[in-house]
Specification:
- The protein has a single domain, classed as Rossmann fold (3-Layer(aba) Sandwich).
- Helices cover 40% and strands 16% of the residues.
- It has 9 helices and 7 strands.
- It binds NADP nicotinamide-adenine-dinucleotide phosphate.
- The site of NADP nicotinamide-adenine-dinucleotide phosphate has 30 residues, from helix 2 and helix 5.
């Protein structure tokens, strides 16, 4: 650590960082940011091109399917054979799949969302947490959807709401070891996950306070803050990086609702 790092509370220089779900979108962008700031980063994921993607940003790749307990065990064994300890563990992997509404539910898909978004992160932390020491930071990627319900989004929303409670539980459990646990709640960020439904994205964009659609790179500094000593007083916090999506009704949302209401619609 250099002298300038010693006085820079935002420094992540030299931090051993593992990003579970770091091969695309937000995870890959955060990995690139942390590498550029001097961290040693391992990204995990399932895709065949994981190795070359990681190499392109100066990170290491370990294949891991978090829906598979054996794969998570093997993946962490491989990470820890190379990395003696983990300073920052980012649990970012997540999926959003269409499963229909409760009266016409694709139960397999519903279960799959939970298995990855919630249980996958539990499996990952269970295998990684004992490699973390005092001063460590765990960052979970949750979503404003964890506190806003919408028809057809039950599994995604509930899987993220469960994460919000896990973050609080883990923060309390790991506090005595001086390990912090926080979450980031991105709003609407360009990624593979979002590529699927342009119309839906436009609706969500209009729910932001400022009408903004973020690039994944813009999430990097938020995660860097939580990885760094600058965020030392934060644990059990849900950091809303969502442009106000969950705080109320935006001007655009109010306008859209109002445009569908005739003067004569009021019953009294
Ligand atoms: N984009 C948004 O607007 C937004 C908003 C709020 C919250 N989020 C959350 O942000 C996180 C990242 O999302 P993103 O938008 O960046 O999505 P993305 O581009 O689709 O990336 C998802 C990442 O999760 C990994 N992953 C998915 N299933 C996995 C599995 N079974 N095992 C291991 N890794 C798996 C993927 O790796 P492989 O495909 O290589 O396995 C990939 O690295 C998610 O938790 C998401 O819910 C996103």
């Amino acid at each position: 650590m250099s002298d300038s790092d010693a006085v820079d509370p935002f420094s992540v220089n030299g931090l051993n960082t593992v990003i579970v779900g770091g091969t695309a979108g937000i995870g890959l962008a955060v990995a690139a940011r942390l590498v550029s700031c001097g961290a040693t980063v391992t990204v995990t994921g399932r895709r065949a091109e994981g190795e070359s993607l990681a190499a392109s940003i100066g990170a290491r790749f370990v294949r891991m399917d978090i829906a598979d307990r054996g794969s998570v065990a093997e993946g962490f064994a491989s990470i820890l054979s190379d990395t003696p300890h983990i300073d920052c563990l980012i649990l970012n992997a997540g999926v959003d799949m269409f499963h229909g509404e409760i009266d016409d539910l694709d139960l397999d898909t519903f279960e799959r969302v939970f298995d990855i978004n919630t249980l996958g992160l539990v499996r990952s932390l269970a295998h990684g947490v004992n490699a973390m020491s005092a001063g460590g930071s765990i960052i979970v990627t949750s979503s404003p959807a964890g506190s806003i319900a919408a028809p057809g989004m039950a599994a995604y929303s509930a899987s993220k709401a469960a994460l919000d409670m896990l973050v609080r539980s883990w923060a309390l459990e790991l506090g005595p070891k001086q390990i912090r646990v926080n979450s980031v709640l991105p709003g609407i960020v360009e990624s593979e996950m979002d590529a699927a439904s342009t119309a839906e994205l436009e609706v969500i964009r209009r729910m932001t306070a400022n009408g903004v659609y973020r690039r994944a790179e813009e999430m990097g500094p938020v995660f860097q803050f939580l990885a760094s000593p600058a965020s030392a007083p934060l644990t059990g916090s849900m950091v809303g990086a969502h442009d106000g999506i969950s705080i109320g009704y935006s001007h655009e949302a109010m306008g859209l609702i109002a445009s569908g209401v005739d003067e004569g619609d009021t019953d009294g």
